[in-house]
Design goal:
Shape: globular
Number of helices: 9
Strand content: 15-25%
Distance between the termini: 13 Å
Number of strands: 13
Structural class: alpha/beta
């Protein structure tokens, strides 16, 4: 039986305009639609709190120069506490300087269903590996130049944009003992194709569509 991929909502349920992305409501919705977990973004406030947001500005405030209290955003601890037992978490670190803070939070609240600490920044992954080599790391790739770096980066998960995905590359990465997550996969035809290619995880803006399509695939089961 082919192992079905993990199903992850991008920033929760990003396509659902009724709820803001990167919020508890959005994360809850991704799980309610049938996903195994979700991806979310972490930045560092000026007072060194790991706040949940994608952009470097919120409501005209520069995140790196603003206190967490003024930003009024979720923190990494909020997310870990709420979903520690219920979701696989893809924790994207958007900036350097979060490494020790993130690892301390994960040690206090380790996600029971698994997690990956991911980043576009190889230097962040190198720093994390130097602190604790047991932490599962993920390299996110949006360009071919980034993607070509995967053999030299200490990442268990390689996370290419769907436009970079090729079946032979999936196999090469998996033969090297690593896993492949693909983002952001929203078309039904792409979701089916990447599942058939053996992707270990699929990240989508539309968790409902993702869960319905993969749920209809016969012969799939969740990976351990």
């Amino acid at each position: 039986m082919q192992i079905r991929p993990l199903l992850l909502g991008h920033r929760g349920a990003r396509s659902q305009k009724s709820v803001p992305e990167n919020t508890l409501d959005s994360f809850d919705l991704a799980l309610a639609h049938g996903c195994d977990g979700f991806e979310f973004d972490v930045r560092l406030s000026v007072d060194r709190h790991p706040v949940i947001c994608h952009d470097d500005n919120i409501r005209g405030l520069e995140v790196a120069q603003t206190s967490a209290q003024r930003l009024s955003q979720l923190t990494l601890l909020d997310v870990l506490k709420r979903y520690q037992a219920s979701a696989f978490l893809d924790i994207e670190l958007k900036v350097s300087g979060l490494e020790i803070i993130a690892l301390e939070a994960l040690r206090a609240h380790p996600p029971a269903r698994g997690y990956v600490v991911s980043s576009f920044l190889p230097e962040v992954l190198q720093a994390l590996q130097g602190i604790d080599a047991s932490i599962p790391l993920g390299l996110i790739c949006e360009t071919r130049a980034q993607f070509r770096q995967w053999p030299t980066v200490p990442a268990k998960y390689i996370i290419p944009h769907h436009k970079l995905a090729r079946q032979n590359t999936f196999r090469e990465i998996q033969r090297a003992g690593r896993k492949v997550f693909v983002w952001t996969v929203n078309l039904a035809s792409d979701i089916k194709r990447f599942a058939e290619w053996g992707a270990d995880g699929i990240i989508s803006d539309d968790p409902e569509r993702l869960a319905v399509i993969i749920g209809r695939q016969s012969g799939f089961k969740i990976q351990k």
